[in-house]
Automatic annotation (TrEMBL):
Annotated keywords: ATP-binding, Kinase, Lipid biosynthesis, Lipid metabolism, Magnesium, Metal-binding, Nucleotide-binding, Phospholipid biosynthesis, Phospholipid metabolism, Transferase
Name listed for the protein in its UniProt record: Unannotated protein
One Gene Ontology term of the molecular function aspect: metal ion binding
Organism: freshwater metagenome
Gene3D superfamilies registered for this protein in UniProt: 2.60.200.40, Probable inorganic polyphosphate/atp-NAD kinase, domain 1
Length: 289
């Protein structure tokens, strides 16, 4: 028995389309499953927990949605030690990008999940909350706050419009960053604590991050001018921004940050700092190409 957890509104309806496809895929192979669609995220989490309570030894969870659904599902399946197959149906799909699966052809992922054993990868844990890809604070969190309040435009363009709104008035903030072996006291524009490689729909903020090495890659963007930021920003989509002198990347198993700022993880609001995050090795079972 599988749990098929679907967010039908992911990717402007892409979740409903792919969820229907996955259900048909399972039916054609006579594989037992139960569809879980909630009225809202809280309801969906409750329904998933009831399924897990009913089928503690189930085959696992197939989640059809974006990084928001990933974040919700992780909170339930990690304690239950259930494997996850994440079908990319959202706007960003950065966790699936990190794992290395195609964003358009989902058959290889389904085939592997239904026929092979999963492998263990790392997750981040921030103040009791699991995350798969990236925990961040600074300019991108300010942009997330703005984007979440906007009804237009839809899709990835919303993030770019929010950047245009927020950049003119944005100012670096002071951060106290406590790592495994040292403390960094600095002004910064952005800090990304990376288990995965990308966020924001393919921005390779930490291109060398590895989900199976037991460490976070921590990227600190020290203050630069607005003009320089506009020049450097496009490089993040290829990961070449890491050679810029204002970019510092360090590795640490545990990270604590104190500042007057908010944090986001997998695109979901964590809340006000201070925060403490730990890279927990091998805690999620999933499939990779």
């Amino acid at each position: 028995m599988w749990a098929l957890v679907i967010n039908p509104v992911s990717g402007q309806g892409n979740g409903a389309r792919l969820g229907t496809y996955v259900a048909g895929y399972l039916n054609a192979r006579s594989i037992s499953y139960e569809i879980i669609i909630g009225r809202n995220p809280i309801d969906q989490a409750d329904l998933l927990q009831k399924f897990i309570d009913k089928y503690p030894d189930c085959s696992g969870v197939i989640a059809v949605g974006g990084d928001g659904l990933l974040h919700l599902v992780l909170q339930k399946i990690v304690p239950a030690q259930l494997p996850l197959a994440m079908i990319p149906a959202g706007t960003g799909n950065d966790f699936v990008r990190t794992l290395g699966w195609s964003l358009t052809d989902i058959d290889p992922l389904l085939e592997k999940a239904l026929s092979t054993k999963p492998r263990s990868i790392d997750l981040g844990l921030v103040d009791g909350e699991w995350f798969g890809a990236i925990l961040s604070t600074g300019f991108d969190s300010v942009v997330n706050e703005r984007a979440n309040s906007m009804s237009w435009p839809k899709g990835p363009m919303k993030y770019n419009v929010a950047i245009a709104f927020e950049l003119p008035s944005f100012k670096p903030r002071h951060y106290e960053i406590v790592l495994d072996d040292r403390t960094i006291s600095t002004e910064a524009m952005l800090i990304a604590i990376s288990n995965g490689r990308s966020y924001g729909g393919g921005m390779l903020v930490c291109p060398q991050a590895d989900v199976a090495d037991g460490f976070f890659d921590v990227m600190v963007l020290h203050p630069i001018s607005k003009l320089e930021f506009i020049k450097v920003f496009p490089r993040v989509f290829k990961g070449t921004h890491i050679t810029h002198p204002a970019v510092e990347i360090v590795r640490s198993k545990k990270v604590s940050i104190v500042a007057d700022a908010v944090a986001y993880a997998d695109g979901e609001r964590v809340g006000q700092l201070p925060i403490t995050a730990e890279c927990v090795r091998g805690v999620l079972m999933t499939w990779m190409p």
